[in-house]
Amino acid sequence: MQKHKNRQDNKTDRHAVLRRILACIRPYRALVVLSLLLSVATVVLTLYIPILTGHGVDKIIGKENVNFRGLVSIIITILICIAVTAVCQWFMNHINNKITYRIVKDLRVRAFSHLQVLPLSYVDSHPSGDLISRVITDIDQFSDGLLLGFTQLFTGVITILGTIIFMLSINPYITLVVVVLSPLSFLVANFISKRTFTMFKMQSEARGELTGYTNEMLGGIKVVQAFGHQAEAQETFEEINERLSGYSLRATFFSSITNPATRFMYSAIYAGVAIAGCFAVIGGMLTVGQLSSFLSYTNQYTKPFNDITGVITEFQNSLASAARVFELIDQPSIPEDNASAVELADPKGQVTLQDVSFSYVRDTPLIEHLNLDARPGHRIAIVGPTGCGKTTLINLLMRFYEADAGAINIDGENICNITTHSLRAAYGMVLQETWLKAASIRDNIAYGRPDASEEEIVRAAKEAHAHSFIMRMPEAYDTVIAEGGSNLSQGQKQLLCIARVMLCLPPMLILDEATSSIDTMTEIRIQKAFEKMMKGRTSFVVAHRLSTIKNADMILVMEKGHIIEQGSHDELLKKGGFYARLYNSQFSPV
Fold first, then answer.
1. pTM for the whole structure
2. Residue 555, beta-bridge partner list
3. For residues 276 and 170, what is the distance between their CA atoms, to the nearest angstrom?
4. 529-547 burial, b for 16+ CB within 10 Å, e for fewer?
5. Separation of alpha carbons 379 and 548, rounded Å
6. For residue 330, what are the CA distances in angstroms to 110, 465, 586?
7. Highest mean pLDDT range out of 9-18, 53-62, 75-84?
8. Which residues pair with 565 in a beta bridge?
């Protein structure tokens, strides 16, 4: 019962994916029609050649009965047909390539565009390697099957129909033998293709898992080697790779028996036609030339079935890959702004949280009934043990995650009623984890303000104390940063991230361990730059080193998602509570 249900689900999945693929093809239907017309022309001319060949055979049968003039005329006609067929075939293949790669381009753009609007909850819960595999590898697999479908499926179907018509014109009875036996090959191909889809789907999923794991290990190769984890990493890799190999072998096994099985059926059909044709020639129903034409048609009739069964097998892989891509595209995106959402123009920086609750996992609360009132221009420091909810609070302020309950207001306006773009543009954010794109240093600093002048970019770099090391780079501001900033130190990357915010200077700032990777002397200079940058701006500073937040207007001490203490540095030390113990633990002698 369960197996029957799974088969029904797979059948439904295949049909749904196929409908989606047809919808992707629809914008290029004019090119598809042109490809079909060229395919018809190619097939008709190809099938006309056996008739000419048969006529040629009949003109040379019999002693001293060769019609050379008629034979030359037939050969010239055959050569013209071959030349025109070649031209039509070239144009058809060119059009099919254009259709395929345009569809693939559209699908890849859709997938990447959707990645930009996916909620962080989805991105955080899926390995980046798996997402990359869907956008790159799976779409490539889909492309291969789609191209085969256009180049062989169209021509194959038209060839089958054309050969039936031509065979009927020669002898309807022998044609009936061919047509009656043909469905057997379809039954064999259909039986096998149902099983290959499941195997190819499991293969695609395992391939994505392997890509994700490889990406993860390469990203942390230094840590893996430092802790001597190579053997364990290799063992996990081999386990995933073993599963992938198993799925691949089973998929290949099922797909590889399709062609031999159908070839056996077609050989039987060919043999039957040859035997029946010989008796027809003996009985005077066919000429030798017509029999040669008929055998040629029988061979051409069966060949497309081999091609089509190969296409069907490859197409199962394409369907499985396309299903993973469509699954990504179908994921709910970040909710669009309300129709009544307003632009956050000239924000003052009044931020309030009213009874806010949030959890990443249902039934596992993290932040509960959190209240906060940050006045314009105030500097709010957030401290607490790891996992207490500091970074989560930042994610809620930026609306990377939606609060489960309560309200977050800016200048009295609920952030749900503010456009997402204007909300995030009002914040400047420097995180502990740096991100730089593979581009010049200039482009990275101007990431938030592409129209910034050279003078503004240099000024921001100087204020962030990044100018001196930039000028020591091979091409100064034109130096191209490698992917992930691998040609920079961690401290240099963080200085560039700080310069990026210095250039924008939004009305509100979020600094999440912004100086964690900078040496003490540079940190002192950066703190002075921050003092200048934060002046008159509402700032949220997450810090583990409490010496950096002494001058904060208010310090929030968080534990298990709650604010357990709040006040200035001196006030909290006088209380002698959690903050005082935390502060003294950092500065007491060992």
1. 0.62
2. 381, 567
3. 13
4. bbeebbeebbbbbbbbebe
5. 12
6. 11, 45, 49
7. 75-84
8. 557
